[in-house]
Amino acid sequence: MKELYSGKMTEKGQLTIPSDLREHWDIGKGDRLAFVLNENGEVVVKPKKKSIVELFGILKTDIKYDEYEAKRSIAEHVVQKHKEVTERDG
Known about the structure:
Elements: H1 19-25, E1 32-37, E2 43-48, H2 67-89
Antiparallel strand pairs: 1-2
């Protein structure tokens, strides 16, 4: 069953997200939402979760890393896991 939710916009353009939706999406302070305009002119709102790549640099460290090499390594791992699943599941 679809439910209708509404929020109130402030003078600064900030929108209050109803608590039921915040709980459903598991979002809180600092989380981002994506606003997608579809072909019918309707706006679809959904939580924007961070990818592993976006999390690089979130922890402070003196360790240097090559961003290109890190992304390449992640992509290699994803491809390998995909091959394993494909071989396993046929």
